[in-house]
Write a structure and sequence with these properties.
The chain is an alpha/beta fold and about 240 residues long. It has two domains: about 5-115, Rossmann fold, CATH 3.40.50; about 135-240, Winged helix-like DNA-binding domain superfamily/Winged helix DNA-binding domain (Arc Repressor Mutant, subunit A). The chain contains eight helices and twelve strands. A five-stranded parallel sheet has the order 2-1-3-4-5, sandwiched between helices. Strands 8-7-6-12 form a four-stranded mixed sheet, with helices on both faces. The protein has a three-stranded antiparallel sheet with strand order 9-11-10. β1 (about 5), α1 and β2 (about 25-30) form a beta-alpha-beta unit. The longest helix is centred in the middle third of the chain and has 27 residues, at about 105-130. It starts with a strand and ends with a strand. The mean pLDDT is about 85.
């Protein structure tokens, strides 16, 4: 059973979220502030976190940055503010999803279900790799190594990435098979909400495609989706 930590200072909302999530097959626990998070994480492992932005003391962005620095767990942010900059800031810090209050409980359930399913698929790929002695990966899988900013082609050839390339690849590979919108990708690259950098995103993707052909003699499966963003259309996962 997947464990979810809910960080929400509104007692009534926290209780509502916990009752609902526990009722749909998750193991949910809740805390009212950032101060309680470390103790709860020391007590047990959590697969996902649902975190309010407007917390007393350290806000949700501070919690997000702290969690993302130590873990690849799935993180969903909640806020009463529908401000685009808040959303982009959260995504730029590594949030997987952003929901505006009042929260649609069914939507939250579906978001967590999809995020946790992807985590299980990634873990399954890692387990297969470990069982093989670490010498082989699924024959068609691309692997992104966060340590060193390296993208490994299915045949094991290595592409060294720049900082902005690594941020972009990490976001796309972590959500392989999905369409990731341009705003999310720009935020991941550290350029949230800046129209001047729109073209920079396309240039970075083009550079990555050329680099894959020159370095690995393979076509990088990053596909443009008109009017939306980009998608990594191939088997892929993020390594530690």
């Amino acid at each position: 059973m997947n464990a979810v930590l809910v960080i929400e200072d509104d007692d009534d909302l926290r209780d509502t979220l916990l009752r609902y999530l526990n009722g749909v097959g998750l193991s949910a626990r809740g805390v009212p502030s950032a101060e309680d998070v470390d103790a709860e994480l020391a007590r047990q492992h959590f697969d996902a976190v649902v975190c309010d932005v407007n917390l007393p003391g350290d806000d949700g962005f501070a919690v997000l940055a702290r969690l993302r620095a130590r873990s690849a767990m799935r993180i969903v942010m909640l806020t009463a503010r529908g401000v685009a900059n808040d959303r982009l800031r959260g995504l730029g810090l590594g949030a997987d999803y952003y929901l505006v209050k009042p929260v649609n409980l069914r939507e939250l359930e579906m978001v967590l279900h999809n995020l946790l399913q992807r985590s299980q698929e990634v873990q399954g790929a890692r387990t297969s790799l470990e069982d093989s002695g670490g010498d082989a990966a699924p024959s068609d899988a691309w692997r992104y190594q966060r340590t060193g900013w390296i993208l490994l082609a299915p045949d094991g050839q290595r592409m060294q990435l720049s900082n902005s390339e690594a941020r972009l690849v990490h976001t796309l590979v972590a959500r392989a098979g999905e369409v990731v919108d341009r705003a999310t990708l720009l935020a991941a690259m550290g350029r949230p909400g800046l129209e001047a950098y729109e073209r920079n995103l396309d240039v970075t993707v083009s550079r990555l495609r050329r680099k894959a052909e020159q370095t690995c003699a393979q076509k990088l499966p990053i596909v443009a989706v008109r009017g939306e963003g980009y998608s990594f259309q191939g088997a892929a996962y993020v390594e530690p």
